[in-house]
Amino acid sequence: MAIRDKFSVVQMRTVLELNGFPAIPVEDEVATKQQILDSRSFPDPIHDPEIVGAAVAEFAQRASRRLRKEGEVTGRFVVFPSTSPHRPGPEHSVSAHVRLAVPTSEPTPLVAAARAALVPKLMHGMQYMRAGILCTDLAPDGAVSVPPGVLE
Q: Would you give the DSSP letter of residue 93?
């Protein structure tokens, strides 16, 4: 092909696609997500651990909303805040790994577990610039049975 002799593979594929020839096969099967991440950078440093905890609670609620929208539950998650390595002052990054007794997509247990695991690890006076939650061990809602004697 004359196009390939003069240009890159990407441009050759573009020419093929524009002429009606599929260059990359279309995948019929959608890959299932393995994790859901909700994190943000703050516009200004946050020094109070309670405010960072409140931000993480909001991120947990957003992750819960996404889980319910996609019909999934999470069995584990990681919550994390960090300072900026680009700002003067001490750096502090910490994370809390939480395994839930019962996988859920409900906001109340996610928020409570996230705050309980993270807030004690935070330090007053640090300039936290980012925080988030990463939900893992995703499963379709209803696919995980609750063992007898375990309360949600």
A: B
